[in-house]
Here is the input.
Amino acid sequence: MKYIYETHLHTNVGSKCGSTSPEDYIKPYIDLGYTGIIVTDHFFNGNCAIDRSLPWRVQVDNFVSGYERAYEAGLKEGLDVFFGFETRLGNDEYLVYGLDKTWLYEHPEIVTATRAEQYRLVRDGGGAVVQAHPCRERAYQDGIDVYPWCADAAEGYNLGNSRYEDSRSLEYIKKYNLCCTAGSDVHNVEMFKEKKPFGVVSPKKWSSIADYVQILRSHTQLELQIDSVPLQKEKQTFDFKVTEHNDKP
Here is the structure.
């Protein structure tokens, strides 16, 4: 038996760009045959919806509440829901897995950490890091930066990418012999009326996010759920150069 998991998902609670409530993701993923989802809202150093003037613990509570609502809804309906988040450091973004609310309470320095510091903090906390859509081209960027030594894997297939962007990500992943992941980067569940979500396929059911962290940290390549292709043009208009930062943390 195979178990399918969404690795990259945004709600309207933690992500400014999210437009679907946590509860409204549950039934669509069940109907599509998914075993579980990982809520990865934009963190405080990204396009986050949480008021940054609040006390740190309140910020964390509000941020994690999107995941907690999805978890409770999934518990009732039979969909496993796990916690993660997406950080942004300049032109590059990272999916962080394996940390929890208590860890965030105790580590506010994660918000201002460099890439190397972030990687060390997450790894020391028992988590894992994946560089999200490493070769994506967008108007809000001034280039593309990839850091093979600051992540445990890279997202080679992203449903929000063009095939051109994904192809460049796959070239980068192959060059550094990285494990490849896939995720939908979904912000609105309505997108699934036109295309199927991406994800990873595990031969074993995960009992917690620690199971996925172990897979990433051991550099085990999972089967990928990539039944559909992004409905975008082959190439963006920016065509940024990919800058490879090879300094080890």
